[in-house]
Amino acid sequence: MKVRIGISGGGESLGPEAMVGLARAITDTGFDSLWLPEVLTRPGPDPLVGLAWVAGACPGLKIGTTMLLPGRNLVWLAKAVGTLDQLSGGRFLLTFVPGLGIGGERSAIGIPAAERADLMEDALPVLRRLWSGEVVSHDGIAGSFAEVSVSPLPLQDPFDVWLGGNVPAALNRCGRLADGWIPAFCTPDDAAAGKAVIDKVAADHGRAISPEHFGVSLAYAGDGTDVGALETTPVARRARGRPLREIIPVGLTGLRTIIGRFLDVGFSKFIVRPLGPPQEWRRELEHLAEAVGDLQT
Would you say residue 236 has pLDDT above 60? Predict the structure, then answer.
């Protein structure tokens, strides 16, 4: 398997120079890609705008996002994604997520959490048809339009769509509709169990997901961090009851260990991010490269 490690720069209000500096540091230290997640109520840039800026400044770097799907106009989204994939030279990596259901994010998304799964089910097949160049008519809960096509199309053909989430419905949806899976806040055992479900669902529907297309998003804490003290924070709510000590490794040695455990259960793509913003991204990435860079193959 090709092991790839991307870096998430989300959760910070990075200015234009700092964002380009982070992208160049990722390239210089040998990591695979820059990821900007989408959480509306947290500091950080809009991912499509931020990644377009980075793509222009660092044209050889792969760029990715875990993006909200519920609530978006499908034609607008198809065109925006096609444009960014063209501008980046076919280096755009896209994972759709339903969005968080906690705090202000629940209302900011504008779609009740209970309705988001149905919207994603309706939207994903339509987006694939638009990205294939079809003239599409659709009347469903995710939108209604008649005889529409979009241009530019993604440079990647076909354009892969990965999904996040690790609840049973999300695993089922991934097996039926996705090209890959990237969960967050899970243990290697959780991930292995989820992968088994996804593979079975895919096989039951006459399809298969490439063994290269299983990854995980990993936060790591600095040396000496008391992860137990985080159990009352919003971070813990995202873990859905799993002890944070089992999910968030402490220090770069701990990160290397948990990546190894994920590799053992068939996961080869990683999006890593420090739990708190580093004082200097380049220095952090240099240390990270010393600790885990050799795992990339």
Answer: no
pLDDT of residue 275: 87
Could you tell me which of 218, 191, 211 has the C-alpha nearest to residue 35?
218
- 48 near 65, Cβ under 8 Å? yes
CATH superfamily of 4-295: Luciferase-like domain (3.20.20.30)
**Greatest distance between any 2 Cα atoms in the chain:** 58
Q: Residue 136 pLDDT > 90, yes or no?
A: yes
pLDDT digits (tens, 9 = 90+) for 1-52: 899 999 998 766 788 899 999 999 999 999 999 999 998 888 889 999 999 9
Alpha carbon distance 71, 73 (integer Å): 7
C-alpha angle 151/6/173, rounded to 5°? 60
Domain ranges of the chain: 4-295
Task: Kindly give, in sequence order, each residue whose CB lies less than 8 Å from that of residue 5, ignoring residues fewer than 6 positions away.
Answer: 31, 32, 259, 270, 271, 272, 292, 293, 295, 296
Contact between 216 and 184 (Cβ < 8 Å): yes
Per-residue burial over 148-170, b = 16 or more CB atoms within 10 Å of its CB, e = otherwise: bebeebbbbeebebbbbbbeeeb
Burial of 7 (0-12, 13-18, 19+ CB in 10 A): buried
Q: What distance in Å separates the CA atoms of residue 111 and residue 125, rounded to the nearest whole number?
A: 20
In DSSP terms, 215 is beta-bridged to: 269
DSSP run (H or E) holding 72: none
CB–CB of 84/51 below 8 Å?
Answer: yes
